[in-house]
Every structure is written in C-alpha cells, then in structure tokens.
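Go through this chain.

——
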Amino acid sequence: MVSVGRHPNITLLSYSEVEKVAGYVGNFTVTVRRKPRYVNEELCTGCGTCIEKCPWKKIPSEFDLGLGTRAAIFYPFPQAVPRIPVIDTVNCAFFKNGKCGACKKFCPREAIDFEQKEALLELEIGTIILATGFRDFDPRQSPNYGYGVLPNVVTGMEMERLINSGGPTSGKVLLKNGEKPQKIAILHCVGSRGKEHEYCSRVCCMYSLKLATLIREYVEAEVVEFYRDMRAFGKDYEGFFHRTEGHGVQFVRFDGEIRVDQRDGGLAVLATDVYTGESVETLVDMVVLATGAEPQADQHEVGALFGVSRSPDGFFLEKHPKLAPVETTTDGVFLAGACQGPKDIPDSVAQGGAAAAAALDLLDHGSVDLEPFTAYVVAERCGSCRTCEGLCPYGAVSMVEWNGKLVAQVNEVLCKGCGACAAACPAGAATQNGFTNEQVLAEIEGILGLVGARHTSPVQEMA
C-alpha cells in the first residue's frame, strides 16, 4: 500500500467514488466525485496532532466494528494510505454548532479546511479493473446464532480485532462480565452453504483454524470447532489443519441447523452430530461465528455503472470461467479479487496480477478485436422511435442527427451482436451483419436444396 502511494506513475484518489462511466475500450471517460476530508492533503503530514486534541473521542469505531472508539477527526484505519485524517461531519462539534475547531487551532501545518467542497474529476481511461471486494455476512439475519441478542457471541472479524495487540482491548479477550473465557466455540458456515447463501465462502475454515490457534496460544482457553466439512483446499492448508489439531483444538462435525442458547450465565451450542445423528449440547463461555463473504451492498449499481453482469450469487460475472477468468463481456473492464467470488489472499493476488497483465496487454496491443456480427442502422428507414436504444444491453445504440432528424446509430466497438435491436425495430431499420433478410433466405434455400430435388423451386415452395 505504501509503495502504491509513493509510486510516481500511480495517482491515488482515496475517499472518492466513481459517478459516471462513458465511452468504450481504450476511450473511457470516467467521472470521479472526490468527497471533502476537510483536510488539505497537500499540507497535512499525518502527525496526528488534530486527533489528539479533538475533544470528541467516544464515537464507535467502524474499523474496530464498534468494539472501540475514535475521535471526530480520525484515520479510516491505522495503516491507511495516504495517512491523511478525515472529519466526521455528523459528530464534529464545529459542523453541528460551529463552536469547536480545536483541530484547526492546534494543527501545526494549518491543513484543516472547513470550507472544502466536493470536486468532480473527469478522467480519460484506457482500461478499467474492478477490485471492489466483498462484505462480511451479517449474522443478525439468522436468529438461531443469537448474535446481537445473547452476550459473548461475536463474529470472526470481531474476534480478530479483540485478539490483536493493536486492537481496542490491546489483545485481551474478556467476557462481558470482565472474566477470562475458559471455553470458546467456533461455528463454521455462518451465512454460507445454507439457506442464506448456497455457495462456500472458502476462507472461513482457514481463518477459523487460525483464530483457534491464536486463542490456544494467547487466551489459553479450550476451543471447540463445529464444522460441516473442513475445506483446506490450498497449498499446505491440510498441514495447517493437522497442526491446529496438535494444539489441542477439538473438532465436532455437525449436520443441519446449529443453534446457540443461553444456559446458566453461559452459552450452549446445540447441534446434530453427523456420525451418530444424536443431538449434542456443548456448554461454552463464548461463541465465535465464522461469517462468510457476500457481495457488496451496491454490487448491482456498480455492475450497471461499468456494464458488468452478475452471477446468480450476486458477484460479478467473468466472461468465461476458464478461458477468460479476469475479463468481462464489456471490453476493457477486468475483475480482480473477491468482487468476482469468494477467494483467499493468494488467489486474490494471482487474479490481480492476471487482470493487470490482461489490461496492459490490451493497451500495449494498440487495437481491439471487434465482433464480426455487429448491428447497424439504415438511417433512411429509421423512424426515431428509440426502441433499440432502450433495449440494447450494452449501451451501444445512441441517437445522432442525420439530415435534420434524429436517427439511431450503433457503436461497433460496444456492440456484441446480440440482435435485440434488429429483432425489435418496428421499421426494419436495424439490421445485423451476417443476418440480413437476403442472407437468411439464401441459407433457407440452400438447406431446402439439400433436402432433395423438387419440381418447384424452394422459394416457390415456401410461398
């Protein structure tokens, strides 16, 4: 991340969103909205004085998942690049009543700018790589786990922050009553391979094993893992599973639904043993939910913005799962990482490298291959009804002025030859290369001629 921030050929637009995408491969025009930080990035050195002097420091931290607090001016996360803070205008006293301004008063570089406004940047882009990631499954959607209702039920990401020495508790894992847990259960497949999502999130088994190892080493509590199937699919992952067993972690394979209930001040995990078919009740002090990955909340909107389809599970759809795993049906737009589907770090790194190589290859090639069966519009016949413009799934049809009237025009670079415009055009003005009426009739005559000789010609027979 630091290398990216310092690279002379990389322009990093943090705290920004893509508003609009126009054009086509090699000739995209992207409009980016830069949100105001109220901190001048040119002047700020990231010293943190403004954060230290801010009197409002009891705001739940998003990075710590609400387990810790932050100030009204803060770094999005400790390793953020660039190291520039941002002001939370909802909780900042200056923006609420205009009475504070401590950050501006104490900033040695005078970098605080309460008058900063949004800015729109228009960029000329050759290729695009989407790497928007995933979001953690919210276990509140499944009441059987008791998350948000029962005490001491946390997600894997929350346990990650609790056990981290730089986290909100400095690495101390304690129960709500302040005591140290003696026994912890880790439940696999929360939000995966069930009624919520049918797919496997792939990373849950391995990060559960990692958390179990860390708990055994640093919390010194008993650990019981409840799993459907242990999917240790990567290089040396099976060995890591056996090393975790060697740390004294217990494993219980369950089937069907699993429940968490309260029992005498503690928690009870209720599951059905897959081998015996009998119900198993395990008493523990804390439950860790191995939540799966799901698409971002705005996955549909982002897909529509960049012209990328989604698979039934909601993730972005690649052009071909084997022959074009990083490409999309929109030329010049590539995929990298978990926005295309759940994957771990090595696979994300590999796909990122592949997407970069594919994008660079396209730019270096200097030309693009077009579909041979693109559509076109005969301007003399076009009635300006705009039916084709609304139907085109690739945005390849636009209206242009011709002889004093608006007519439809097809951009051959964007067109994929689906034929929707040609089939729907009421005036017969939209036609597809390779599928004109003359060509189709000639094909029919050829087929009928092969069927057998007739006394009448194929065309007469059709009539």
Observations:
- Residues 345-365 form the longest helix (21 residues).
- The chain has a mean pLDDT of 93.
- The chain has three domains: 2-127, 135-294, 375-432.
- The domain at 375-432 is CATH 3.30.70.20 (Alpha-Beta Plaits).
